[in-house]
Amino acid sequence: MATEAGHPAWFLTAAQGFVGDRSNERTATGFTRHGLSIKASFVANRPPQPSKLWVHCPEAVHVDTPRVICVAGDLILFRVDISPDCVPDSRFSTRMDCDYFIYHADPNLRVLTLLTDMRTRCFEDTEVGILSRGLHQYTIAALVPCPLSFHKYELHLFHSETSSWTSMELPVAKPQQEFDWVIPFNTDLYYHTTSNVITIGGEYGTIGWVDLWRGILFCDVLREKPTLSGIPLPLPMEQITSGHHLGRAMDCRGIAFVNGCLKFVQLDIIPSYDTDIMDPETGYPTLLVDDWAISSWINPTMENSYKAWGEPECTVQAAGITIKTDMISHLTGVLQLASDESFADYLQHLVVSDPSPSLDDDGVVYLIAREKLCHQKSWILALDMNTKKLQSVVPFGIVKVEDPSDSDFVKYCTGRSSSNT
């Protein structure tokens, strides 16, 4: 699907940006807080090809890897650590060291704006979303838990027309439905931890802060007196019944708002860890994957009910996925397929993660695949859930992991282009 101008209708944007000059029709220029000139360029590709943010600051001594925080329309919120006079130790770099920018990457309206005080607010990247309001205006919203409270939050809003922040404390006026299953008290399911943010939009500017393990907190951020309301997500029954630690939710769960409905996907992996053997190439434990499957749900009413999700509308097992014959030679060049191994066998043993529903409402789910746990080299798989066929495989790139504790070094953000929001 493409816009009338021939540009992609939506993007899979790599969360880790790149340093360098890639000037194009979307390039915008601005200044850092130290007065250095900076250039941002967005290389837009049609999914499954990842779109990429490039940052160029020729006057700086050092430019750290940019991080895309969120995308809405052609608006990109990103942060980057830029040093004017020395090369910092990246191990000690914090958000306070970063400059934050809102980048309007529309070819017809290219603007790069420094957000001067956002770095001092110490928001987690996952707590922030953007609401595009027409061609020129936007709202940045962050929802932060109040200290020592699981049921109150601080909503921080930045409106472009005033260029200032406002904050207010909000209780959850309409909590999500109580669990419909007995949940152990030693799990993280009893309080909300935001995994990512989705933008619904509409007259009152609805934004959802998603805990992919638990549920969504919705807020109409354009109302004079906004409130919070929750809806549940399908429970992670495998983790609940087995007692396994929940871990990073985006590894195995994803959600999108498509054509007025919520689409939710869950990846189930059958692994076998060998904790005594560390992989010499990655430095991480060896993870052997026996098989994996992905299931999808739809909530057309967005009701505050587990029943609104119903049963999975589709489940696809890796061992049952087929591909077109004319893709075999291409895939052999992209993936390290052994000469005596069938692609079906190879596919089910890949380490896959970060499922994301397509915004085209075509039944496609995108996944990140690696041959080893936390390997720097990765691919994006486009899987058609309706036909159980692999549509395409494209390289996601070689990603340098500077902080092994950063589990988001390979991920992507989804967002529609401005003409489709």
TrEMBL record:
InterPro entries: DUF1618. Residues 209-366 form the DUF1618 domain. It comes from the Eukaryota. Pfam families: DUF1618. This is DUF1618 domain-containing protein. It comes from Triticum aestivum.
